[in-house]
Each structure stands twice: as structure tokens, then as C-alpha cells.
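=== RUN LOG ===
request id: a7f3
mode: sequence -> structure
chains: 1
length: 294
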Amino acid sequence: MLGPLVAYLPTPRTADGGIGTQSLAVLVDRAVAAGVDGIAVLGSSGGFAYLDRAQRRTVVDAAAEAVDGRVPLMAGIGALTTQAVLEHADDASRADALLLGTSAYLPLTADEVVGLYRDVAAHAVRPVWAYHNPRTTGVELSTETIARIAALDGIGGFKDRGTDAADLRRRYDEHVAAVPSDVEIGFSGDALGVQGLLAGARTWHCGLAGILPRPFVEIAAAATAGDREQVDAGVDQLLPWTDLAATWGVARIAALVGPLLGIEMGDLPRPLLLPPDDVRQALARLLEEQPAPA
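=== RESULT ===
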């Protein structure tokens, strides 16, 4: 269903703290016009954890209207309790797929993680993608646990990550040997995730592609063609972007880049703060150096 490139959109806000649906539609149109293969909302880049239930439903509905079936739409449904996840899954029925990470205050055991996905996949009317994001969630999923999740009915795919290119390739090889062939394997990471495509994975899940889609589309195309040299050149060219995103998070970077592109993004939800002005100035210089930033 997804891939090779899924762009994860930030969530624009209005001056009164609501959802900027018009700006969200602009972000959708830019990404689709640039050639992305899927749109995702309410991921880490979309700040899902800072939105209430009504706001999250507004994001999904507005994105579905803007996408209008042109590419698959994925919606994040992560929450601390299974009951809340089920509610978000119900609210996201207009999406084509659901993305579920292991949000937790108390670190989850492997059995608790598998139980979460079993409960949600059995309830949801859309296929569920598992999301391994230990940096944010503090929950480390082994390839064995991911294989247990992938064997569940209702799981359409998963989004893994690696610590480096060698670790990513190792995890991909283990996944191929252990998961059903109809479960889509993908990797995240603005700089590293493309290594998954080179290894043979179906999907690159990319946060920066939500605000800078075209160069990531080009890199993904090179990766699916097996052109490692072009991939490496493209990744090297985007290192200033990916380094800033790794330092500050895509949600904060998007809040600065949006206005530079003429897209109203609103304020970040407190306690989040914008990066210092030297970061905004660096991003402005990068946009000037990028002849086709869309």
C-alpha cells in the first residue's frame, strides 16, 4: 500500500491554538505535487502527543479532504492506553492505514506490546502499521517482537529504524526471514531511512519530506533504482537539513520553515519553544541555496 516514500506532515496551528486546516492542505498539495507515494499525519513530526482527541480527528479529516485519494493516507493513533488508541482508530477511519507507536510512561514489556497491537488490529477497520521509535518512546523492540506483531491479523506493515546503515541492513535481513511476505517492511530516519530502500525495504518513512518533499522524492527514486552513488550524493547535500532536524526535531524545524515558504504554521504548543534565531537564519540560507525547495 505504501512507499517508496511516505512524507510525514507537521501539524499547522491557528493563532487561537486550533488546527490550521488551510495550511495543512497546502502541505498536502506540495507533497503530492512533488511526487511522494504516501502522506502521513499525526506522527512524531505532526506532534500527535500535543493534540487532544477532537484536534486529532480534525487533522485526519482535513488531510483526507486534501489528499482526495491521490495517494494513500496514514494517520497516527498512538496514546498511553489501549482504550484511547481504539478511540483514535475509530476517529481515523477516513485514513487508509493507521500508524501505532508504543507510547508509554511505564516501559512496556514485549508481551504488553504484542497485546496492544493484537487488540488494536482486531478492532480497527483499517490496517495497522507498527512503529518502532525507541528514541522517543523508550521502548526497544527486538526483531523477534516485531515478527510476533507482524504475524497478527490486521497488521499491514511496520516502520523500523536502525542505529546505523549496517544495523539497519541486519534488521532488514532478519525481518525478511521472519515476517509474512504481505507485511510491508519500512524504515524511518531522514538521513538513514533511505538505506532501507537500498536494502530492499518497501518504504522510507521521512519527516523532513513533509516540508521539503522534492529532494527526498529524488533520493527515494534513486534508491529504488539501485543507484547508491546518487543516493549518497543526495543525502550528503541534505546533511545540513537532517543534522538540524536531528538536533531540534522536525516539528520545531517545520514551525520555522513554514513561514519562510509562505505557509502559516502558528505557535508550537507549550512547553515547546522555537529554536533560537540563528537556527531560523541557517534555514533561510539553506532555502536560498536550494533552488527548488518544494
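=== NOTES ===
The longest strand covers residues 155-160.
The domain at 5-289 is CATH 3.20.20.70 (TIM Barrel).
=== END ===
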